[in-house]
Design brief:
The protein is mainly beta. The chain has four domains: 7-62, Nucleic acid-binding proteins (OB fold (Dihydrolipoamide Acetyltransferase, E2P)), CATH 2.40.50.140; 73-133, OB fold (Dihydrolipoamide Acetyltransferase, E2P), CATH 2.40.50.140; 148-204, Beta Barrel (OB fold (Dihydrolipoamide Acetyltransferase, E2P)), CATH 2.40.50.140; 209-275, Orthogonal Bundle (Arc Repressor Mutant, subunit A), CATH 1.10.10.10. Helix content is 14%, strand content 38%. The protein has helices at 209-226, 239-246, 250-262; strands at residues 7-15, 19-23, 29-33, 46-53, 59-62, 73-82, 85-89, 96-99, 112-119, 126-129, 148-156, 160-165, 169-174, 187-195, 201-204, 230-231, 266-269, 272-275. The strands form four sheets. The chain has a five-stranded antiparallel sheet, with no helix packed on it. A five-stranded antiparallel sheet has the order 8-7-6-9-10, with no helix packed on it. The radius of gyration is 24 Å and the shape is globular.
């Protein structure tokens, strides 16, 4: 079964002067224009394509990659506003419509907005909505502390950053536990810190304890390798400098250095640390 607004792997059933026709099951035959056909394409080949309606409301396939698919969130830029609504650049020739009734606030040209992409079942058109809350926290949250999750940074708050967990739930990253630059629309890996009694979810970007040290060990070794195997960072370095250079707290840095020293992977030098 082929899906509009998503990537599908479909067989080529004919090659014409206009392009390749693909068998899209219940959607029928769909054209992949010539400019998207890979070299040496033949009838019977399987191609991975994205299906959507073109400017003439015809189903069409493309090998271009939009910034998001149906049922996904993305931060997209408004490129036009007219009587129909706001239009977003989402990486395809035809811009993505946000109807006025799907705008949390009136959208302005040039600004980015966090939206969720949906398929209008009546028109078969792809649309977006900035009314994010109606799509989030409608599933029961079944997480345990230390679970690894995918996060989409959604908004800056007084406490830190709100993030969407696995495209399903709201969570919060606290400012005093963030040791790397974040921006709205950014996708990062994170961990469940705790699910509180009120069912709100606290998040962290790094695991705690030994897991946190193990996670950072590889990053520190990679950092030292890029520096020629040596760094002037040491236990006397300021927390601010360590955070700027490595994106972690001084506590994590010192614990990781100690762990790597025990493993014989680092040595302490008069002016810093060195890979063995």
């Amino acid at each position: 079964m082929a899906d509009i607004g998503k990537f599908n792997t479909l067989p080529v059933i004919a090659l014409t002067e206009n392009g390749a026709y693909l068998n899209a099951d219940q959607l029928g035959e769909i054209l992949l224009p010539n400019r998207y056909i890979p070299n040496e394409c033949e009838v019977g080949d399987l191609l991975t394509v994205f299906i959507y309606l073109d400017s003439a409301d015809r189903l069409v396939a493309t090998t271009q990659k939009p910034y998001a698919q149906v049922d996904e969130f993305a931060s997209l830029k408004v490129v036009q506003v007219n009587k129909m609504g706001a239009f977003l650049d989402w990486g395809l020739p035809k811009d993505l419509l946000v109807p006025y009734n799907q705008q949390h606030k009136a959208m302005e040209v040039g600004r980015h907005y966090l939206v969720r992409i949906s398929l209008d079942n009546n028109s078969q058109r792809l649309i977006a909505s900035s009314k994010i809350d109606k799509f989030v926290d409608i599933w029961p949250a079944d997480y345990k502390a230390q679970d690894k999750v995918d996060l989409l940074i959604a908004a800056k708050t007084d406490l830190g950053f709100k993030a969407i967990i696995n495209d399903k739930h709201w969570g919060l990253l606290y400012d005093n536990e963030i040791f790397q630059p974040l921006r709205v629309g950014q996708k990062v890996c994170g961990y469940i810190k705790q699910v509180r009694e009120d069912e709100r979810i606290d998040l962290t970007l790094t695991r705690t304890g030994n897991d946190k040290v193990n996670d950072f060990s590889g990053q520190l070794i990679a950092y030292l390798s890029k520096q020629g195997g040596h760094s002037t960072l040491n236990d006397k370095s300021s927390p601010e400098l360590i955070k700027k250079e490595l994106g972690v707290s001084k506590k994590t840095f010192k614990a990781t250095v100690g762990n790597l020293l025990k493993q014989g992977k680092l040595t302490i030098e008069p002016n810093g640390i060195k890979l063995t």
